[in-house]
Amino acid sequence: MSVNRNGSVGYSFYHPYKALFSNDCRKLRLKNKSPFVGKFISRIIKGQKDKYGYGYKMGTGRIKRQKILLPVDKKGQPDYEYMEHYIKKLEYEKLVKYLSIKYSTSQKKI
Known about the structure:
Blueprint: E1 2-4, E2 12-13, E3 25-27, H1 35-46, H2 60-65, H3 80-106
Antiparallel strand pairs: 1-2, 1-3
């Protein structure tokens, strides 16, 4: 996962492949290797991007101090199952919407 610290400050991206990172971004390694959990956490980080900008960069120190609020289970541990299901549901809804638009426009007569 990467987090931009310069340019588009605060944007986060999940990379399911080996990637090279410039000095303008930081690489985060997640303990949980699920791509859905990675996408969930990336989305949470991206949601906080508005507090950063040209005069308030997301430097390494600020990234380390960044609070990332995650759902927890009954034991107070990160609820990775919830995160995974949440992202799967979002992807499913987007796919259904895309397919309904694609097939409704291809059915129109010219």
